[in-house]
Amino acid sequence: MPASASLLGIAGLLAVVTALAAASGALLARGSTAVPAAAWGVVAAGAFGLEASLRCAGWLTGPSAWAAARLVVVALATCPAMSLLGAKRPQHGVWQLIVLALGVTLAMPAASASLVRPGSQPDVHLLERWFILVLFLVGWLNFAATRHGAAATLVAAGQVLLARLFLPGATAEVEQPVSDCIAAGLAAGGAVLALVQSLPLRRRPAGRLSGPAARIDAAFVAIRETFGAAWALRIAERFDAIAKHRGWPCRLSFRGLQGAAGDAGANWATEAERAFRALARRFVNADWLSRHGAGGRDVDRVREGG
Is the pTM value of this prediction over 0.85? Predict the structure, then answer.
């Protein structure tokens, strides 16, 4: 077997590893609106695995066929980050249609090259090239400051390397199985690392908080690690506005609940927990909250809004 075919086989196997890690992530995220993003990750990794397998089998011969297939893979690779940007109930379901439309739009030059101009390279506009790069950067920045920062960096590096042909300033190139194998390894390493870091989410040191304040803190940290900085900061902003209006002596920062260590059992804490859970339920359900340290019999008796 030629060396290039062997490298493509390795890349295909690494894509399977990435897809399995993403599928496992979807299982861990069950009960949250982050599941579709993980599902898009499975689809993107599966598409790259299929591309590598077809090339290894002698299909997709020629730079034009390879470039068209790669553009489809790149378009799908932008979907997980885009999916998370709309991961809030009740629009999270309809948002997936927007994500699908984005993927189709980004892949259109591949269809045009294959159907209208057979044998030619996909003509990707400069604006689309920048948009692809920005979406990869957004996905990375969303998790760069979280515990998944290293994993996000590996995945983003792999995505950029896979998409090298369609980024700003890139020119046509021949197939490079070595680069593809490295890119697949980076993405697989990041996906597996993120999965391992989520088994389970790290708990806060015992004794820092207790009661409702501890549950708020645990759930917020879990949401931050699951959805990234964008939605975590938005939840913190809304919670702090309510806390300020009602005079609660606590605030949510990116690190978690602050200002409640010595007053965690006060009457305001129950109201604060109820308000936080109402905000969190736009992203997760009660079972998810219970699995991430925000459950309890006293909480389960609280009648929560959507």
Answer: yes
